[in-house]
Amino acid sequence: MKKKLFYISCLIFFIVPVLLMLIKSVTTPWRSGVDLDWTSRGWEVVFQDSRVIESMWTTLLIALAVALINLLAGVPIAKALSHRSFPLKNTLEVILLLPLFLPIMAAAMGLHITMIRMGLANTWLGVTIVHLVPTIPYTIKVLKAGYDRIPQDMLSQGRMLKAGVWQAFRTIELPLLIPSIRSSIFLAVTISAGQYVLTAIIGGGTVLTMPMIYYPFLQSADDTVMAAFSIAFVLIPAAAIIIAEAAAMLVAGRSFMKRRGEV
Amino acid sequence: MKWRQTNGLILLLLPACAFLLLAGGSLLLAFMESVRGESGFSWTYYSALFDRRELVDSLLYSLIITFSSTLVSLAAGWLIVRSFYPFIDGNGKWMVWIPMLFPHFVWGYFVLLLLGQSGLISTFLLQTGLLEDRTLFPVLVQDQSGIGIFITYVWKEIPFVILMLLPVYLQLPKQFKEVNAVLGGSGADWFKTVEWPWVKPVMFETALIISAFVFTAYEVPGLLGVSYPQMTPVLAYEWFYSASQDERTMAFALLMFVALIFGTIALIGFALMNKRRMLLSKSSHRY
């Protein structure tokens, strides 16, 4: 009974909105007195607009770069926070979370002039850097929770068997961290793909990500096109996860082959 | 050995320090912009803020929306996790993740599509004859009181609250329930001595993340807001691009003022809770 209630409310509040939007994207505008008709016009407008296609690539590229830097920065500090003890550790953990509680718009505005001086304003690299501010705290949180679940004994065992830092990471920590890594990539990608203000300020209208096009589209396009565009946002995390899994398989496959070759 | 270990530690901390330099540096730069008067250092822009009627109204408006949407989404999310957490962890989790896939403004557009005067619900009511005219449908979105913004945030943040609180409930040690029962504790005792201390830190953190986000994010009020009153981030964004240098500086002052308030709440809160957090994290290592 309780289970049913949960599934039904999830369905109504989380699934039905997406379904309605999907239906909306393949039907003519719903007006009273006019018959409903199927149409592929919404999706055609979205996918035939070269600016939209280009913005999808830009969004994906920036999101992937953000996710990658997030992992490179997040894994080491997560390990330190979880398995090492050093002075001011708790303070450092709170300070690293602090950007989540502060207006990120201030960070973007503060960086604006410096970015112009360094030639990073209006470039995708500059946008990538500013997207790190709202994403890295989440990555550290997620990865630290992942490291917390790895028992210290397991790491000690690796050390006892004379595993080097890199080998211990690859054979013990990395496999156990996979779920956390997956969630942090997902979070970083969705947060990066949903940024309007940060991209607008640092990208200056030159770096066109999907949100940069979404707002002007709202003024001109009808609901059928907007619904299709809205659903298209799912493509970014979906593509990012597929790329990340493929990359992981490539890396894991190669190391596996190498190990067999050595034996 | 000792030296190598500390050395390794520095390497582990290095990327995070670079990040702190970026985040802290950007705030410092923003602060320097906010105190840059015509002849050097000046606090005048901070006091000038409160001479602007639109800002005082905007702060109040933002405060009401932030407080109400944080409270409602926290309460609803908590209630859902408390009652359903065994199912959410199984097959239910992907459903909760669905709204997380979409940016906030897409959800805002959906709310507009659903509840707007020419939205789905009003069209449906019109079709069925329950409503005579569209204009009779209440203005729920792009309205003066910010109901559309409130609905969007609550709808979008409930899944976030669920995903934040879920691990806490899944890690609640089951033995504690037995201990409570054996010692003759009631449901209220269970809540007071086990559940609440366990939930409190995460609850505080979640509340702070949501309220800081709602108070300072431009995307949703930029889409669903009206021209007066405006939420604080919309005002700051407009001032930043204003032709007048004074308003540009005031945008920085406004955001630094907000940052100061949220930063202070966060630091004091975590300092008060840190002892508890440490105890919790130590005990959760051993199970």
List the helices and strands and how they pair.
The complex is a heterodimer of chains A (263) and B (287).
Chain A: H1 2-25, H2 41-48, H3 50-83, H4 89-97, H5 104-118, H6 124-148, H7 152-160, H8 165-193, H9 197-203, H10 210-220, H11 223-232, H12 235-262
Helix pairs in contact in A: 1-11, 2-11, 3-6, 3-8, 3-12, 5-6, 5-9, 6-8, 6-9, 7-8, 8-12
Chain B: H1 2-34, E1 36-37, E2 40-41, H2 44-49, H3 53-97, H4 104-115, H5 120-127, H6 147-171, H7 174-182, H8 187-216, H9 219-224, H10 232-240, H11 245-285
Antiparallel strand pairs in B: 1-2
Architecture overview:
Chain A is an all-alpha fold and 263 residues long. Helices cover 79% and strands 0% of the residues of chain A. Chain A is globular and about 75 Å long. Chain B is mainly alpha-helical and 287 residues long. Chain B has a single domain (64-285), classed as MetI-like fold. A two-stranded antiparallel sheet of chain B has the order 1-2. In chain B, a hairpin with a 2-residue loop joins strand 1 and strand 2 (40-41). In chain B, helix 1 packs antiparallel against helix 11 (245-285), helix 3 crosses helix 6 (147-171) and helix 8 runs antiparallel to helix 11. Classes of the chains: A mainly alpha (263), B mainly alpha (287). Chains A and B meet through helix 1, helix 3, helix 4, helix 5 and helix 6 of A and helix 1, helix 3, helix 4, helix 5 and helix 6 of B. Chain A: This is ABC transporter permease subunit. Chain A: It is found in: Cell inner membrane; Cell membrane. Chain A: Keywords: Cell inner membrane, Cell membrane, Membrane, Transmembrane, Transmembrane helix, Transport. Chain A: Pfam families: BPD_transp_1.
